[in-house]
């Protein structure tokens, strides 16, 4: 698989990676997630399934893996796989996130699946937990879903602790983004310094043909030397055959026409659109099954062209509409 430098971090990454949001917990908002897991949520079975998909990703050449403290047992499953397969730390690029605490109690339906808290005590607690699970493999530690209203980019005690972790553990520090103000949040993050030194080495953001609004900010971040990871390239399943919502019929017709022209599938087409962005270093597959992973990886073979870019650009929604719809997706 093609690799490239991850910004100016000194890391080298594969163009596609695997995220564990859908593999680490029983409930998630991807369309058809319950079917992917066969409605089977026993802990041992979940770990076995995660290891199967991780094995398939490794065999296909994927070397970038992303998880978070709030992905249920995501860090645990990834760490146990790395240990059992005796994967050398230098052979993979591992990223995780802090700032959300998993609260679903291993249930598909819960009053709250995760609770956001970007305070210093949460950072210190979750850093210890991440180290316990991922130890020497952890390369990149990210603020999970930094937003302007969370205030985390102004909390000097948190920023100082992140800088300390960066200096003492050789970590790269990043932030993930969500919501309609991804671009503005990233603009602010690029100005964050601790003792006169820029803090952030990487950014993870949502970009897909329905929600491309962060593209300008991501290009600026890449030009500034940050590594760029793209999540939700399939819009939580909305850009796959699983999206049968009547309001999406027109958009799906356009996607299907381009997929036929380029002799590919809907999901490979959507991910190829992300891979075509020159600032996108790693594009994450969020697959929860081996079959879907292989389908996603076909994006690397798509002969993407300007005709596809022009036609699919018409699918873009306003950021407010996109994130409002996403917020309404059911945990399943």
Secondary-structure element pattern, one letter each? EEEHHEHEEEHEHEHEEEHEHHEHHH
Q: How many structural domains in the coordinates?
A: 1
* CA-CA gap between termini: 32 Å
CATH architecture: Alpha-Beta Barrel
Unreliable stretches (pLDDT < 50, length at least 5) are none
The CATH C-level name is Alpha Beta
Mean pLDDT: 97
What does this structure look like?
- With 332 residues, this protein is an alpha/beta fold.
- It has one domain (3-327): Alpha-Beta Barrel (TIM Barrel).
- The protein is built from 12 helices and 14 strands.
- The strands form 4 sheets. The protein has an 8-stranded parallel beta barrel with strand order 3-4-5-8-9-12-13-14, surrounded by 6 helices.
- The chain is globular.
- The relative contact order is 0.15.
Short account of what is shown:
The protein has 332 residues and is α/β, with parallel strands linked by helices. It has a single domain, classed as NADP-dependent oxidoreductase domain (TIM Barrel).
Note the topology.
Elements: E1 3-5, E2 12-14, E3 16-19, H1 33-36, H2 43-59, E4 64-66, H3 74-84, E5 93-98, E6 100-102, E7 114-116, H4 120-134, E8 138-146, H5 156-169, E9 172-177, H6 182-189, E10 193-194, E11 197-198, E12 202-206, H7 215-223, E13 227-231, H8 249-261, H9 266-275, E14 282-285, H10 290-297, H11 306-312, H12 319-327
Parallel strand pairs: 3-4, 3-14, 4-5, 5-8, 8-9, 9-12, 12-13, 13-14
Antiparallel strand pairs: 1-2, 6-7, 10-11
């Amino acid at each position: 698989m093609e690799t490239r430098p991850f910004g100016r971090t000194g890391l080298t990454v594969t163009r596609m990676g695997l995220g564990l949001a859908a593999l680490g917990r029983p409930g998630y908002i991807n369309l058809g997630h319950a079917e992917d897991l066969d409605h089977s949520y026993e802990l041992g079975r979940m770990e076995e399934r995660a290891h199967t998909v991780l094995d398939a990703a490794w065999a296909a050449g994927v070397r970038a893996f992303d998880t978070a403290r709030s992905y249920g047992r995501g860090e645990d499953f990834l760490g146990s796989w790395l240990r059992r397969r005796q994967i050398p730390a230098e052979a993979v690029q591992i990223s995780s996130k802090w700032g959300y605490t998993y609260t679903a109690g291993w249930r598909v339906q819960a009053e709250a699946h995760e609770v956001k808290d970007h305070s210093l005590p949460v950072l210190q607690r979750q850093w210890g937990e991440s180290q316990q699970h991922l130890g020497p493999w952890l390369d990149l530690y990210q603020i999970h879903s930094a937003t302007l209203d969370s205030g985390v980019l102004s909390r000097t005690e948190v920023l100082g602790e992140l800088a300390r972790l960066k200096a003492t553990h050789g970590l790269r520090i990043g932030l993930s983004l969500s919501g309609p103000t991804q671009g503005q949040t990233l603009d602010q993050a690029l100005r964050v310094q601790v003792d006169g030194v820029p803090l952030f080495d990487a950014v993870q953001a949502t970009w897909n043909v329905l929600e491309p609004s962060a593209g300008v900010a991501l290009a600026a971040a890449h030009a500034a030397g940050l590594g760029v990871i793209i999540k939700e390239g399939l819009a939580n399943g909305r850009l796959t055959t699983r999206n049968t919502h009547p309001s999406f019929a027109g958009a799906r017709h356009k996607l299907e026409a381009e997929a036929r022209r380029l002799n590919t599938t809907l999901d490979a087409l959507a991910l190829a659109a992300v891979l075509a962005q020159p600032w996108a270093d790693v594009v994450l597959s969020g697959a929860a099954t081996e079959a879907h992973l292989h389908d996603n990886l076909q994006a690397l073979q798509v002969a993407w062209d300007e005709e596809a870019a022009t036609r699919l650009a018409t699918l873009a929604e306003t950021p407010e509409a996109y994130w409002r719809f996403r917020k309404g997706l059911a945990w399943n």
